Amino acid sequence: MTEVASSLPAACVIGWPAAHSRSPLIHRHWLSTYGIEGDYRVEAVPPDDFPAFVRDLAARGYVGANVTVPHKEAALAAASPDESARAIGAANTLWLDGGRLRATNTDAEGFIANLDAAVPKWDRGIETAMVLGAGGSSRAVVYGLVGRGVPRIYVANRNPARAEELGRRFGSSVHPIRWEEARGLFGAVQLLVNATTLGMAGQPPLEMGISRLPANAVVADLVYTPLETGLLAAAREQGLRRADGLGMLLHQAVRGFALWFGVTPEVTPELRRLIEADLLGAAATPPAVARGGSAG
Which catalytic residues are annotated (predicted)? Predict the structure, then answer.
C-alpha cells in the first residue's frame, strides 16, 4: 500500500489484486486533458485491511477512490451510501464530503449512459428487456432499466433463486425466468443484455442463439475482453444495434472523476482508442476483471 504525502488532490483504485485495473489510464487521461494537477494511483489492499484503509483515506492524501473486487460490499458498509449503492447492494466509488466518507455505485448510470451514446433513443417505445445473469452487475443493469421506466424486464439465471431475489429487490416490472426459457421469449425482447462472464476471454462462450430477436432489437454485452464478444459479433451479423462493455467501463468512471476533481469529463473517441490499445496489448493475458462496470 502506498503512503501518500502530497498537497495535490489524488484518488485511487482499491482492489485485491488491483494491477489489472484500467481506471488509472482513464483518470490520468482526464487529468491531463483538463489540465488538473492531481494524481490517480493503484492500491492493492487485502480484504482484512480494507476498513482501516478507507477510514484513513484523507490521511493518505486521497479525496476519494474507486473500489473493485473483492471490496464492493465492504465499501457499502464502510461509508454512507446513496440510494443507488443501497439499491444495488454494493459501492464502487467513495468520496469525502466535508470529512464524511460517502459511497455510490456508478454502474447503472454508466450502463445507461453507454446505451444512450451507442444507441441513441434506444428506449423509445421499448416494452421488454432481458438481462442474462443475476449477480452484482445484473443488479446494476436492472436498477438502471427500472429507473429509465422499462415496463417489463426478464432476468434469466441458471439459479432461479438469484433471479427471484432481483424481482423482490426491484419490484413488479422484474420477472425472473429460468435460463432455459430465455430463447423462447426473444421474439418480444427489444433489449438483450449479457451481464454474465460468459463470452469473456478465458471463460466459456455464451451459447444462446439470438436469431429470434426482432430486427429493431438492441444487444448489449458488459464483457469488454474481447472488445467484440461472440454475442456482439452475432448481433452485428444480424444487423442489430449494439453497445459494448468498454463503453460502460468508460461512462461509469465519469461521476467519480467529477466528485474528486470538480470537472465532469467527456468520454471521447480519443479515450476509447487509448483503452482499446491497452486491452489489445494485454489480450494474451486477459485481466481477472473484464466487464464494463465497477471500476474495472
Answer: 72 (proton acceptor)
Which residues, at least 6 apart from 237, have a Cβ–Cβ distance to it below 8 Å? Answer: none
Cell 415496463 locates to 151
194 forms beta bridges with: 132, 221
Mean pLDDT score, 169-191: 97
Q: Domains plus CATH for the chain?
A: 10-106+253-265 (3.40.50.10860), 120-244 (3.40.50.720)
The answer to the question of whether 83 is labelled as a binding residue is yes
89 is in an annotated binding site: no
- Tell me if 68 is assigned to a ligand binding site: yes
How many other C-beta atoms can be found within 10 angstroms of the C-beta atom of residue 73?
Answer: 13
How far is the first Cα of the chain from the last one, in angstroms, to the nearest whole number? 19
Question: How many angstroms separate the CA atoms of 67 and 48, rounded?
Answer: 15
The pLDDT tens digits for 20-35 are 899 999 999 999 999 9
Place of cell 463503453: 247
Name the percent of the chain lying above pLDDT 90: 91
